[in-house]
Amino acid sequence: MYNSDQKFNSLHSHFQQYPSFLKEFRQKYSSEYVADKIKNLWNIKVLVIGDAIIDEYHYCYAMGKSSKENVIAVNFIRDEAFVGGILACANHLAGFCGEVHLVSCLGAMDTKENFIVEKLKSNITTKFFYRNDAPTTVKRRFVEPTFLNKMFEIYYFNDRDLPVSIEQQVCAYLTEIIQDYDLVLVADSGHGFLTKKLRSLISEKAKFIALNTQTNAANIGFNPVTKYLRADYVCIDEPELRSASRSKFGEIKDLITAVAERTHSKYFIVTRGHLGSLVYERGQRKFYEIPAFAQGGVDRVGAGNAYLSVTAPCVLAGLPMDLVGFIGNAVGALAVNIVGNRESVESTVLLESITGLLNV
User: Fold this and answer.
1) Pairwise CA distance, residues 234 & 270, whole Å
2) SS3 sequence, 58-75?
3) How far is CA 26 from CA 252, 295, 321, 356, in A?
């Protein structure tokens, strides 16, 4: 996306911006003010809808090339599994909002339901549907344990659209309950659950929609955010924005403005890794650039879901959008230091981090 000089200049600019941004930001918002706003999110009722994913990490050390084949042989050490996708979003949200209801689809061939329920927080209620032509999606990554370098991964899933009979059941259920929730958070991994009919229903009936459409190895070019007729708040990363815009080198602010218009989004955030995030408030036609607060990190898997999940109720609650971006980047800094979705971002830890940033 950038040549080496552009990357260096952007990174240099980021590290220059970080202390000056905080100096200005501290004059505008106190840690007490932010803490009060975050604590007030607890009364928001949230419905989360999306693809259920199990993330597996199989830790291995590379031994070398096989003597008879062109493959690398590895020594297996151990494995662990986490709930990912919309399941991870529900766990993040449950630390900030008191009532979270999760709607998703599991594969009847291998549901993993007991594992999932065991890993979900106690204030999450669930409604699962089951498709007979698939297992619950598992993404198995083979990982070098010292530095968490990923070697390769295997998907176990069926990403075709839901069978029509299951789609009808989901639509009937959502029609009955969707108006009961203040916030509907949609995390669409493009794995077949969120069909065109379901997307239209959500766009038409939800009071407030927070949306991410993820780009992954299975759906490159086929899962743009513009599939949705409406979203009040969109949170995607820069490659996902460029994919939706079909623009590799276009000016990022122009792309955000165009996609926000197309999806009727009032609020739009693009996360940009070490460059921080770019926040857009459509009604004010205003942009805020928020620097990244993470210095390094161990694993980026799940960081986008954490960012979306914590910022979505903040946007609904009417927090100033520069503050939303600040909170999101603080969440991101915590999330990249969690292995996979082994843990969720907790409100107490987030508030400690924000207090540290604002009170130095």
Assistant:
1) 8
2) EEEEEEEECCCCCCEEEE
3) 27, 20, 15, 11
| DSSP H helical ranges for the chain | 4-28, 31-39, 86-94, 113-119, 164-177, 196-205, 238-245, 252-262, 303-316, 321-335, 347-359
Q: Which residues pair with 290 in a beta bridge?
A: 277
Number of structural domains in the chain: 1
Q: How high is the pLDDT of residue 102?
A: 98
What pLDDT, in 10s, does the model give residues 77-130?
999 999 999 999 999 999 999 999 999 999 999 999 999 999 999 999 999 999
Token readout for 299 is: 């694993």
Question: Dihedral through CA 327, CA 330, CA 332, CA 333, nearest 10?
Answer: 180
Structural domain boundaries enclosing 107:
20-52+84-138+159-359
> How much is the pLDDT for 76?
97
The mean pLDDT value of the chain amounts to: 94
SS3 128: strand
Instruction: Read off the DSSP letter of residue 163.
Output: P
Tell whether 167 is covered by a domain.
yes
Instruction: Supply the CATH number for residue 298's domain.
Output: 3.40.1190.20
Q: What stretches in the chain show pLDDT beneath 70?
A: 1-17, 360
Whether the CB-CB separation of 213 and 223 falls below 8 Å is answered with: yes
